[in-house]
Amino acid sequence: MPAPKQIAILGSTGSIGTQALEVVEQFPQKFRASLLTAHTRADLLIAQALKFRPEAVVIASEEKYLQVKNALAGSGVAVHAGRQALEELVEMPGIDTVLTALVGFAGLRPTLRAIAAGKAIALANKETLVVAGALVTALARQQGVPILPVDSEHSALFQCLVGEAHNPIEKIYLTASGGPFRGYSYEQLRQVTPAQALKHPNWEMGAKITIDSASMMNKGLEVIEAKWLFDLRPEQIEVIVHPQSIIHSVVQFTDGSMKAQMGLPDMKLPIQYALAYPHRLANTFARFSFLEYPSLTFETVDTTVFKNLKLAYHAMQAGGNMPCILNAANEVSNRLFRQGKISFVAMAELNEAAMQALDHHPAPALEDLIQADAASRAFVLKAAKVKV
Ligand code: NAD
Ligand code: MG
User: Fold this and answer.
1) Does any ligand 1 atom lie closer than 6 A to the CB of residue 126?
2) DSSP string, 59-79
3) Which of 183, 218, 349, 352 is 20 to 30 A from 330 via CA?
4) In angstroms, rounded to a whole number, what is the distance separating the alpha carbons of residues 308 and 83?
5) CB within 8 A of 130, min separation 6: which ones?
6) Are residues 145 and 155 in the same domain?
């Protein structure tokens, strides 16, 4: 039997990270968690390290270093802290696959470093492809490393495309649950609270993506993610609301034939698929039953209400640094909404204002993206008149 695949989990304490560790635990002969990283949740990182005995852990927040170091003294697990360490440790020899399960722009540099070091990427951190899809996919091609999608829709598309390398895609349908505010008018949307927005009907996820799902920004980011993963033009990507979240996405080929991937909504499946690719591993996850879901339904998205989706298409069409500007604006507006500092609809208003205000750069290098990210964040904070 081959040695277990060595996995680095960036963001092991989050929703995707903890579910990835459940997958690792189920298949000890297949996977070994060699590197675990977290932002601030030292207690959980320590518990994970004691259980999984990785070679190393990184706590990004430096003030938690001593706590983690002391707790893991004598355990054989090396302890590092800080952003720099996070970027360096992804290059650790022996690591085969880096699962990027951290949130936001913070994932970009570690992902680029991992690709440059020849590691396969299991990509949950969609923001990285949104802000720097051109750089990331070019580097991955150059290094000959795969980017294996973890996002359920993109995993679905990826699975539909197995064996279809020579067959052009006519279009894809990305499915969306519609979130907790499906069918709301703009007036209704003005009144919603963070607590309401944090209740997703079908998925349990981290706070940022849950708000993005409620505001349709998540689907907008996923449209851009799909463009880069599957080399599509904007007009080939369509979003369709499917409230049951059973059909995870659909590929339509040039003969009109459509392939869909379906199953119960459970992120462990796409995580497992990305880690085990190209194999499918037998598991005991709950199975879908047709008779429990006698009707699967579909609707369009009203982008005059859910404006973020339209903004994402505009950003994708403009290209260059525009998706980066949108993503950064959204990271800030999303946080301000969660903190109760702005209304739900103000998120899309601020995102749009940032896209209009900041300079478009058609072919940004990494430094330009870092600068656009910072400028967009500063713009939104100022426009929202919020003190940090
Ligand atoms: P989460 O908030 O539950 O967890 C985030 C993890 O990243 C935590 O371990 C945290 O410590 C770490 N982290 C956060 N900010 C960091 C920083 N600045 N530096 C270093 N580490 C940091 O988030 P999540 O829901 O697991 O989502 C993770 C990523 O996966 C996001 O990009 C999200 O869009 C994507 N995704 C999530 C789901 C889901 O079901 N949760 C589904 C599809 C895609
Ligand atoms: Mg998704």
Assistant:
1) yes
2) ESSGGGHHHHHHHTTTTT-EE
3) 183
4) 30
5) 221, 224, 225, 323, 324, 326, 327
6) no
pTM greater than 0.90 (yes/no): yes
Give the residue-averaged pLDDT of 362-376: 98
Summarised one tens digit per residue, pLDDT across range 79-137 is 999 999 999 999 999 999 999 999 999 999 999 999 999 999 999 999 999 999 999 99
pLDDT of 228 reads 98
Give me the helices (H) in the chain, please. Answer: 15-26, 42-52, 65-71, 83-89, 108-116, 126-143, 152-160, 186-190, 194-197, 207-215, 217-230, 268-276, 307-318, 322-338, 344-357, 366-383
Check if 122 has its Cβ closer than 6 Å to any atom of ligand 1. Answer: no
Ligand 1 atom showing the smallest separation from residue 12 Cα: 9
User: How many Å apart are CA 96 and CA 86, to the nearest integer?
Assistant: 16
pLDDT in tens, 153-206: 999 999 999 999 999 999 999 999 999 999 999 999 999 999 999 998 888 899
Both 332 and 291 in one domain: the answer is no
The total of structural domains in the chain comes to 3
54 with 169, same domain: the answer is no
In Å, how far are 100, 124, 387 from 17, measured between CA atoms?
9, 10, 32
- Helix (H) or strand (E) run with residue 362 in it: none
311 assigned to some structural domain: no
Confirm or reject: Cβ of 21 under 6 Å from ligand 1: no
Sign of the dihedral defined by the CA atoms of residues 43, 47, 52, 53, in that order: positive
17 CB near ligand 1 (under 6 Å):
yes
**Ligand number with the minimum distance to the CA of 81:** 1
Q: Are 122 and 146 in contact (CB under 8 A)?
A: no
Q: Residue 5 C-alpha to ligand 1 middle, in angstroms?
A: 22
